[in-house]
Design goal:
Number of strands: 10
Helix content: under 10%
Oligomer: single chain
Radius of gyration: 13 Å
Mean pLDDT: 96
Order of helices and strands: EEEEEEEEEE
């Protein structure tokens, strides 16, 4: 079955960096746009970044532009989010999914907490 497993989150001080990973299985990963979402408790998840099937087209939302970079490795069936210069407002649970998101693809997410 489809499985997306996020990892790499943690507690980091403002200005720090984290590298998130998304391991995919159970579907033809290279045939899908993929995306990262961030969700704060009590709020709907928000799109943070997406990437096309080959990795040649990427988009990050304005709030993280210049700080976050999305990438993928279709050989490894993996997607990544490099997060630099983190801010407290980046605190959220980060999920990966296809784009547009498939309800059955949601994983457990990985918690990112930015705090001093």
């Amino acid at each position: 079955q489809v499985q997306l497993v996020e990892s790499g989150g943690g507690l980091v001080q403002p200005g720090g960096s984290l590298s998130l990973s998304c391991a995919a299985s159970g579907f033809t990963f290279g045939n899908y746009y993929m995306t990262w979402y961030g969700q704060v408790p009590g709020k709907e998840g928000e799109l943070v970044a997406f990437i096309d099937m080959t990795g040649s087209i990427t988009h990050v939302v304005d709030f993280v532009k210049g700080r976050f970079t999305i990438s993928r490795d279709n050989i490894k069936n993996a997607m990544y989010l490099q997060m630099n210069n983190l801010k407290p407002e980046d605190t959220a649970v980060y999920y990966c999914n296809a784009y547009p998101p498939r309800p059955a693809y949601w994983g457990q997410g990985t918690q990112v907490t930015v705090s001093s």
